[in-house]
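In response to reviewer comment 3 from the previous cycle, which asked for concrete evidence that the modeling workflow produces usable outputs, we include below a single protein chain processed end to end. The sequence was submitted unchanged, and the resulting structure tokens are shown without manual editing.
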Amino acid sequence: MAFYGVFIGIDKYCDPRAQELTAARRDATALWALFIDTIPQMDAHLLCNEHATKEKISSVLSRSLEDATQEDAVVIFFSGHGSRDHRLICFDTMTETLADTTISMDLLADTFKHSKAKVILLVLDCCFSGKAPARVMEDTPVARDGSFSWETLAGKGRIIISASAANEVALETPGGHGLLSAAILHAMQSGQETVDLFGVMGQITGMVRADALKMGHTQNPVVFGFLEGGLILPALKKGQKFYEAFPELKGHRVTSSVRDLSYFGFPAQVLDEWEKNFKNGLNNLQQSAVNDHRILDGDSLLVVAPTSSGKTFIGEMASIRTVIQGKKAVFIFHYKALVNEKYDQFSELYGDRLGIRVIRCDGDHGEQVGLFMKGKYDIALFTFETFLALSVANPFVLNQIGLIVLDEAQFIADPTRGISVELLLTYLISIRERNIKPQLIALSAVIGNVNNFDNWLDIHNLITKDRPGPLTEGVLDRQAGGFGGHITYFNNLSILFAKRAVYFLKN
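The workflow returned the following structure tokens.
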């Protein structure tokens, strides 16, 4: 038996009204890579985002189904949005021309009917009902009869696995996988030589149902069609293609050389810019965050280090890695001035030169809130209060986020702003019960005893008092001409006051 495969994953769409996803491309890429590693001779195609147009999808599907003989199997996997009238949404789908820019179930049924393939396995990790965060395009008409019959697609040798019942949602975890895709990936990597797909469907359904319930929803995968003797597939095994697609899973370690970060898939353009900005390479703090605390593998971390120790770059590395993986990153700052400063810096470095979409939502730029709500960004910059207000009022936006970087976390002890930080972190802890677990990197100045801060957040900590460069501490002598005056240096008894003065002079 020869295997043909078409793996489609779409997170981004041409239509500005379409909600972006964060895990569809990862779903398709993971399954494509595993199948290729397990069955090297497989004729498999991977179509993601801008490559997954209606024309391209239709062409590849038709060719694979036509080439398959009576002894062959065709695996078709789709991860992305469905429409409410039972269509698959392509990258170039437009709401006003829905019929012409989508893949209809009738088209698939007709193509299946004319294929000689012994087995066609169609896996749909999308849904045809619900609203955000479901995998459905919201601005689409509801089917007139309100129902859809899978019998037009399924039958002997035609197996359909749908992520949910027709009136249920299909969900994804932030920056991870669709719930159905994650369960299939788990079940298909059994450690055995083969997997009976019908035999593991109970396990797959149970995993999806449990994960959906944690998120406050109901999702029950369904299977249609039959095959005499069951459907036995080779168990999937990680190999070269998989690790090329997901290099972070190899556990690479880095030295001080910025170029070592290429192991994690950072583009050469990013590394070129970082080499210009960091002439001495990665310092000990940054190396430890990557090597010992695996922040580029998605692990959360509390970093406590002095000013100018390079801890902000830890969050920056993690955010770009998150974007490379197709996920979205959020930076949260305590002042609007810092939001604007970082917006200018990130826009120039990552936006203008590398095409990364940077937005800011700080109360003064309301026009960019809509972009955040639709997920049409890569890095979003917030103040504490703005992010808290938006995420509490619209909890589905948290399903889009793969990483949250909280700057100046020591502000939780501030008598005026601390309540916002505490409420925000409490909220992030509470949503874990709904299986929404974005990576969290909290950056803090040296605060002495962390007082179980890391235990409360349930994350590891990286604490150092080492400072790469000396800090000159002092206050301004007003009698010597205001800002043009000289700095009077204090002894250790005046250190606290001196630090405050230097902070406000720099900011």
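Confidence is low (pLDDT under 50) at residues 482-507. We consider this sufficient to address the reviewer's concern, and the full set will be provided in the supplementary archive.
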